Amino acid sequence: MDVSAVGRQAGVGGSERMILQVQNGHPQIARRTRSSAALPISRLKCRIALGSTCRRVAIGVRAAVRPEEAKKVGGRGEALRRSTVDRPQLFVGLPADAVSDCNTVNHSKAIAAGLKALKLLGVDGVELPVWWGIVEKEAMGKYDWSGYLSLVQMIQDTGLLIRTSLYTHSSSDPAIPLPQWITAIGDSDPSIFFTDRTGNLYRDCLSLSVDELPVLHGRTPLQVYSSLLQSFRDNFHPFLGSTITDILVGLGPDGELKYPSMAGQRNRKPSGAGEFQCYDKNMLAHLKRHAEASGNPCWGLAGPHDAPGYSQAPDSAAFFRDVGGSWETPYGDFFLSWYANHLVSHGDQVLSMAGGLLADLPVQVHGKVPVLHPWSRTRARPAELAGGYYSAGGRDGYAAMAEVFARNGCGVVLPGMNLCDGLQPEAMKASPEALLGEMMRAFNRRGVGVWGENQSARGKREGLEKIKETLGKGAVGKFTYQRMGAYFFSPEHFPAFTQFVRSLDWTELPAEDLPVEGDAGIPLSVSASDTTNAREMQTA
Known about the structure:
Elements: E1 2-11, E2 14-23, E3 26-35, E4 42-50, E5 53-61, H1 67-72, H2 75-86, E6 89-93, H3 108-121, E7 125-131, H4 132-135, H5 146-158, E8 161-167, E9 171-172, E10 175-176, H6 180-188, E11 193-195, E12 201-206, H7 221-236, E13 244-249, H8 281-293, H9 330-358, E14 364-368, H10 382-387, H11 399-407, E15 411-414, H12 432-445, E16 450-453, H13 462-471, E17 478-481, H14 494-505, H15 531-534
Parallel strand pairs: 6-7, 6-17, 7-8, 8-13, 13-14, 14-15, 15-16, 16-17
Antiparallel strand pairs: 1-2, 1-4, 2-3, 4-5, 9-10, 11-12
Helix pairs in contact: 3-5, 7-9, 9-11
């Protein structure tokens, strides 16, 4: 399989011809030549050969023309500037393990070439995942930002913007643990982690029930998160507002504002709605106090006894049944209101802390809210209930959360914008499109800026069309495409992505930017035996 690409990046001083090769899933800028003729539009041509059949895809790419240069190249430059304003800003997520456990830049040459390829395509910026377990790995207050500082400098030198995602959870793929000292505390005091009704611990992040408890060597998690963010501010201050324009703060499992309700179905396709995560001793103590204050102390002994397990269908037990389910009883309303409000309070505290620390800087703070679409076409909407969003029975489960984001001046990141109703299993009774629309309306009504994401690049081609359709409605200001890696630059994916980028900027191309017959690319062999090397850049 042969893959190569040729592009021209234009400026008033001439055009630069760049040959991009993709080998083992890694982009490489193979050769540069200069031309004296100025080209106001860049072209990217991909040549993809499968066996003896070769197909060329010519793709228009926004040129790197500064506004003052665009005036000099005439009417097409003016049209070009209009097109870049009309569409949302487009970012691409860097590999989740872009910085290693040893705080060095992983696959630096591949990432550097990938950044140049994105710039050539006309992408605005990249999303940089920053992990608590790498930065504050060994001891509380002992920070090491060196790997991330090197990578941010590399990105700045390429001319791309950055959305930093500051994650306080761990990752299983790639393996990025929590800080060692947090794990040690958890070994002696497991109540700092979420717990389900059978006693299973969710060790990937701290339970929101300990937000204000001094369980971390005498400090609360909120205090520790605040110190982490302050250290980030101090170390990256030269980049804030210029290169780093947006900061996402982690809010829970997978960085999202939710309970880890699907923890029992990790690495498997979900078959149930998940379980309530309210059984660590601190959550139970809070539930007990709330029940006593409401005049129903018996309601505070535990979570719902008639809720199904992780892999059981929602209607296999009484609580989530659409008709006559326990969620409709006074007890159900009591528990679900408490459970959702506890999540709202956690989000409010973290976003308030982050907003306060960064309020004087020209950066936008964001939080991520999950799109829990399984069973969203039912009355009970059990996946949302278990995840902490009280949407059953026609309630607006996102109004209170949207008000929190608005009050703290934060934007919201909504993932799953590539999901299509037609591709969902009928048995799951899911409508990600309707749910996403409902969520966007809740945040838009309150003036909260929406930033979109796809769930994964490893999806159907229809996903790119769905993203384009959603962005075309004008309700999303910025979009992050997840995530750079071996698959991202593969022949199966990269040509489709470049077509997607082009479609965001133009309705049609001028004749001089259409494919030129006989303009050859440079073939580069990619063999099936290179699978191991292709996984060098993670796609998580």
